[in-house]
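Sample pair:
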Amino acid sequence: MATGVTVMVSWAVKPECARDFAAALAEMFETTRLRPGFRSIRLLRGETEASEFLLIEEWDEARFFQDYVAFRTERGDSDRLLAMVTERPTITTWALEPLAAAAKAPAAGLGGGSTGPASPAYGAG
């Protein structure tokens, strides 16, 4: 069974549409979270380009994302978003299971855990 997928959608939005674009997507999140196979979604704005956006989504399987795109297309939501962009979005799909990962250890005294070096297997051993 698949462990899930991460979908990244990169958007280049017309600068004058950036606020409306972000608001439209945020509004859509209410129904997005109800879709079969949905896990999570985040909308990020570019650090240096305020009209660049990145959607990071997690789905149980790629087919659930594809069904979701069809749903948004049928409702006219895709056309509404595409009217605000300078080019078609770039969509990439990734296996959810990381090949490698790291996280910052909690500060001493803020949540238990060891104060020693982190184990390569995240606490195993």
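DSSP finds three helices and four strands in the chain.
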